[in-house]
Design a protein that fits this description.
Layout: H1 10-17, H2 27-36, E1 40-45, E2 50-55, H3 61-73, H4 79-97, H5 100-112
Antiparallel strand pairs: 1-2
């Protein structure tokens, strides 16, 4: 909601890029380590917030928290992954534009929250 008007979608792109690699490890290394422990981290966003969801067994919580800290402190934003995410975002926007319920919700939100 508070992202710069001249850069719409910035929050969504940042949230999407956080799990695509850090300065120390690529996305496959991060995903492999989490998957090996049966853990997962997911980032999502909406017009008002970025949500972070993590799930693991209690004994794997230090691994989960350490990986999340690395993702938040040392994101690498690789150019090839950014380009992929931009294409995925365009496709998602086109899909959302075809969803009449979502369009009605967006219009209601714009009317209420000028």
């Amino acid at each position: 909601y508070f992202e710069p008007k001249e850069k719409p979608g910035l929050a969504r792109l940042v949230a999407g890029m956080l799990e695509r690699g850090t300065l120390r490890r690529g996305k496959l290394e991060l995903a492999g380590e989490l998957e090996g422990a049966g853990a997962e981290i997911d980032f999502s966003s909406d017009p008002f917030a970025v949500q972070i969801m993590g799930r693991s067994l209690a004994e794997d919580f230090p691994l989960l928290l350490g990986t999340l800290a690395e993702m938040l402190r040392e994101p690498s934003f690789p150019a090839d992954e950014l380009e992929k995410l931009k294409q995925q975002t365009v496709a998602a926007i086109k899909e959302q534009q075809a969803d009449t319920g979502r369009r009605a919700y967006e219009r209601l939100s714009q009317t209420i929250f000028d």
